[in-house]
Amino acid sequence: MTKTAPANIVSFSGGKDSTAMLLMLIEKGYPIDKIVFADTLEEFPEMYEYIAKVEKYINRKIIKVSPKTTFSKWFYGLAVKGKHKGKMRGFPPNNAHCYWSREVKDYTLKKYCYGQNVYLGIAYDEPNRIKEHPKFNALYPLNEWKMTEADCLSFLRQRDLHNSLYDRFQRLGCWFCPKQRKTSLKSLWQFYPYLWLKLKVLANESPCGFGRDLNKLELEFKGELI
């Protein structure tokens, strides 16, 4: 029986690095069978608009892979193991790995990409993020091409494919991430008030809180904190 060759999959997050990698792979003629986006279901509206823009630019479909559950169900659900077993999850502690990223990105992609070749957008100046993935063959083209994060931003601007979310956030991800910087939280408060209010509700209901006093931050953002 002839063994089927592994597929070549691009892991696309919508961020500058993975987008620059995708475009460069296409321009250089690398083999690409699928382009996959792990949808957290909690993306900013601009992210979905950007994905559509990239699809139009490359004239290819980007497959959205969704998790089996929602963040709300996971947040209010009970931990099934560890010292917090049987207790409501809420937000993960700031010093712990993000369980939501693990569930919707790590696990989902590993399952979808099992046994395949996967292009991962890790910039040349982020060597600490490069690692082995036992479930698939990880490839790091940006590192091979020595493209830094700044190079990726410049590359995309030259092609009018700058993601507008970078005008408000240094890093892209879930709007409720407890590990995001104060400047990102200020952007959330300023430009997405409905999400800011939702975040305050979640912070109040989370067993371990949010890790920061959002009411105090709000006063600071308003210029009322002395």
Provide tags for this entry.
226 residues, Rossmann fold, 8% strand, 5-stranded parallel sheet, 5 strands, alpha/beta
Order of helices and strands: EHEHEHHEEHHHHH
Report the CATH architecture.
Answer: 3-Layer(aba) Sandwich
Average per-residue pLDDT, rounded, comes to 91
Note the overall shape: globular
User: How many helical stretches?
Assistant: 9
CATH structural fold name: Rossmann fold
- The number of E-state strands comes to 5
CATH class: Alpha Beta
Structural class: alpha/beta
Distance between the termini: 74 Å
Give helix % range: 40-55%
Spatial arrangement of strands, main beta sheet: 3-2-1-4-5
The whole-angstrom Rg is 19 Å
The major sheet is characterized as: 5 strands, parallel
> Which spans have pLDDT < 50 for at least 5 consecutive residues?
none
Q: How big a fraction of the residues is strand?
A: 5-15%
Descriptive overview:
It is a single chain. The chain is of the alpha/beta class and 226 residues long. Helices cover 42% and strands 8% of the residues. The chain contains nine helices and five strands; from the N terminus they run E-H-E-H-E-H-H-E-E-H-H-H-H-H. The chain has helices at residues 16-28, 45-58, 71-76, 99-112, 141-145, 149-158, 182-191, 193-205, 214-222; strands at 8-11, 34-38, 63-65, 117-119, 137-139. The protein has a five-stranded parallel beta sheet, sandwiched between helices. The longest helix is centred in the N-terminal third of the chain and has 14 residues, at 45-58.
